[in-house]
Fold this sequence. Notes:
Blueprint: E1 2-8, H1 14-26, E2 32-38, H2 48-62, E3 68-78, H3 81-94, E4 98-102, H4 110-113, E5 118-121, H5 129-147, H6 158-163, H7 204-208
Parallel strand pairs: 1-2, 1-4, 3-4, 3-5
Helix pairs in contact: 1-5, 3-5
Amino acid sequence: MKITxxxxxxxxxxxxxxxxxxxxxxxxxxxKVEVKALKAEPREGKPVAAIMAAEAARMEAAxxxxxxxxxxxxxxxxxxxxxxxxxTEAWLHDGRDVVLVIGGADGIDPQLKQTADEAIRxxxxxxxxxxxxVLLLEQLYRAWSLRNNHPYHRAGSTVAVCFGHPRLGWxxxxxxxxxxxxxxxxxxxxxxxxxxxxxxGRTPRAAAARPGRGRxxxxxxxxxxxx
Length: 227
């Protein structure tokens, strides 16, 4: 899957450029993310509607045909990081490349909004343009790390519960883990298997510890002594 961030504003502070480049370098080839930064429309006393329409035309030209259009809008769907990771899973199964659209200082033209497949919001707060771009790339990388059980995201059992983990032998299918939320997997460690019941409900070790047995079964490490 290819994700393209189409955004108005090609000049960012150095700190924002460095942060964006850092995250862009982290994505693997099969989850390519790129940014198309377009020049903002000169204001020069123009009405806001004319500025937004001109910037919308530039964004339209920068988007490939047949892609899934996702706009960033203050009225869009509020998502947690885990929900965004689940959303990217749906994008992957949709089969289309994805374009994420960040508007200019005045927002996104209403007509361009109408062509979107969906709208999401980054925050309930108003963010500077440079920070919004960095935050979006960071959250996309976090979504990738959640889907691939990468240690970048450190939320305890969230990764294992939602997306599985190779050490636990679970497949990478989110729907398979929606009903096992109470399971606690500290540090993604595999939980110890329950003891196997022996005669009269005793564990094999406990049964072996009773007198009269001709052979003693070796005790496993960490097991308690039987009665």
